[in-house]
Design brief:
Blueprint (H helix, E strand, L loop, with lengths): L16 H8 L1 H9 L3 H12 L6 H16 L1 H21 L8 H29 L6 H13 L4 H11 L7 E6 L5 E7 L8 H6 L14 H55 L8 E3 L6 E6 L2 H6 L7 E4 L5 E6 L5 H16 L8 E5 L4 E5 L11 H15 L5 E5 L7 H17 L3 E5 L3 H9 L5 E8 L5 E7 L8 H19 L1
Parallel strand pairs: 3-7, 6-10, 6-11, 8-9, 9-10
Antiparallel strand pairs: 1-2, 4-5, 4-7, 11-12
Helix pairs in contact: 2-3, 2-10, 3-10, 4-10, 5-6, 5-10, 6-8, 6-10, 14-15
């Protein structure tokens, strides 16, 4: 049902795959899509990470298919199960791979095709019953193709032809004599003689020249078998290829439907968590759109028991979003929500928001702070610069880059200057930037430059120090209110000591 390309489970994932999964916590999203189905998990990862399609029409095409799937869940799951049954039929019954001879290959291929045609019949039945319920171009084309290819007399003709290929009345061959009286140009022939009834078989005399082998003539039987294999070799290959063709159709169908089944599973989880859901409005890569209402970090929604706070943004025409404010005020959550929503939109999914619209990006990249660990070959700051260099090597115009407290591993002045230089270079290269930072000198410098293409957001903090987890327009402040967290920890520690004394 995908027009541009099918899902390829072997396709190369983005070079920054591990960074995206780690920084956006995408494993939570993949598990929700998969449930307990390993195959759904196998499909979800490449579908989401490699779904940065830059064609608005294709995204809308996929959205229409997904809307159909959500409205006709039982039918979609039934088609998925039928595709799975066809694949399992080959796995559990196909023995042709072990046969060295055309006669054995033909026997197994005919037997497999007979079983597959029963599965095709089930698919035809489901299609006939449900075609009228689907309205997307993708499903309409799918059902129309089944109707055209699987006419009412199709199954009867296939059944008859497969029965003939069993050769219960023997094999009719023709051949020519070649050099040294060797047989050449073996051709399998269809008998034009009507099948005799039992009376004719009993009383009629065979016409033409015949010979009979002695039951103990093993060499004769071996030679006759070799002659038969010469004649049916092409037929055996053709029947085996036909079986493969049908199986490849079911493999493709199952793979594509696996993505939509995963979306159905995710939709159910988000509804269970009372999260808003909408189908986003994608715009062209050259545009600069980013507006939404009540956007949530979908992965946080899936992992939290309580409701997650949503955020709004009106960022059309902007290229730079600088996010500052109180520690643990929701900045990183907001940033993850941006990245997850972009990935979900561009592979044709819904997003966790009341409304969402953004321009398509040609690549999504993250540059998050890392805790120092044993795998680092140098200090944190050197490691940050090395990762930034790798990102720059892969960046293209109209990419989206998410920074989270980057370049804070050095002193304030040096970190601010490096961040400023990188941001200006990226803007010149037409890269859209979301930058969460505690570097006041950096953020304030951008604020004072009064850039028309920039929006400044600040995590809200109430007078008593409570965080609302809302991000509102506001200029950068010199403090991140780390003292609030110290006070909270100190008070909690003091309370614990009183309870245990």
């Amino acid at each position: 049902m995908y027009r541009e390309r099918d899902f390829d489970l072997q396709q190369k994932l983005p070079s920054n795959e591990s960074a995206l999964i780690q920084d956006l916590e995408l494993d939570t999203l993949f598990r929700a899509m998969a449930g307990n189905d390993d195959f759904l998990l196998q499909v979800a990862k490449p579908a989401v990470l490699s779904g940065l399609d830059d064609d608005v029409e294709t995204i809308l095409y996929r959205q229409a298919i997904l809307k159909d799937c959500l409205q006709n869940e039982s039918a979609v799951r039934e088609i998925y199960d039928i595709a799975f049954e066809a694949i399992e039929t080959k796995r559990t019954h196909w023995l042709g791979v072990f046969s060295r001879y055309p006669s054995g290959i033909l026997y197994e291929a005919v037997r497999l095709l007979q079983m597959l045609m029963e599965v095709v019949g089930k698919l035809k039945h489901v299609a006939d019953e449900n075609a009228g319920k689907f309205g997307s171009p993708g499903f309409k084309t799918f059902f129309a193709t089944l109707k055209a290819e699987l006419a009412d007399d199709y199954f009867a003709r296939v059944k008859t032809q497969l029965k003939e290929l069993e050769f219960r009345d023997g094999v009719l061959l023709s051949a020519e004599l070649g050099q040294g009286n060797q047989g050449v140009n073996y051709v399998l022939r269809k008998s034009l003689q009507p099948k005799p009834n039992w009376f004719q078989k009993f009383f009629s005399r065979p016409s033409g020249y015949t010979f009979r082998l002695d039951p103990r003539d093993e060499a004769g039987f071996r030679s006759l078998s070799e002659l038969q294999d010469e004649g049916i070799n092409l037929a055996a290959n053709a029947v085996a290829q036909s079986a493969d063709h049908i199986l490849n159709f079911f493999i493709m169908l199952r793979t594509e439907l696996a993505f939509y089944i995963g979306c159905i599973n995710l939709h159910r989880w988000l509804r269970h968590k009372n999260a808003p859901i909408c189908f986003p409005v994608p715009t062209q890569t050259a545009d600069r759109n980013h507006s939404f209402t009540e956007l949530r970090d979908a992965c946080l929604v899936l992992s939290m028991e309580k409701n997650v706070v949503g955020n709004d943004l009106s960022g059309d025409g902007k290229n730079l979003f600088v996010i500052t404010g109180a520690n643990q005020g929701g900045k990183s959550t907001f940033l993850r929500g941006i990245g997850i929503a972009q990935l979900m939109m561009q592979c044709g999914m819904f997003v966790a928001a009341q409304s969402f619209s953004a321009n398509i990006c040609r690549g999504l990249f993250t540059h998050y702070k890392r805790e120092e660990d044993a795998t680092m070959k140098s200090g944190k700051f050197d490691e940050e610069l090395d990762r930034m260099s790798g990102i720059v090597d892969s960046l293209t115009p109209d990419s989206l880059l998410l920074f989270n407290e980057s370049f804070a591993a050095t002193n304030e002045r040096e970190g601010a200057e490096i961040a400023k230089q990188i941001v200006h270079a990226l803007l010149e290269a037409r890269v859209k930037i979301f930058f969460v930072t505690h570097l006041y000198e950096f953020a304030n410098g951008l604020w004072e430059s009064k850039m028309n293409e920039a929006i400044f957001l600040r995590a809200e903090r109430q007078v008593d120090g409570q965080r609302t987890f809302k991000l509102l327009p506001g200029e950068p402040l010199e403090t991140s209110y780390g003292a609030d967290l110290y006070q909270e920890i100190f008070e909690n520690d003091k309370a614990r000591k009183v309870l245990t004394s």
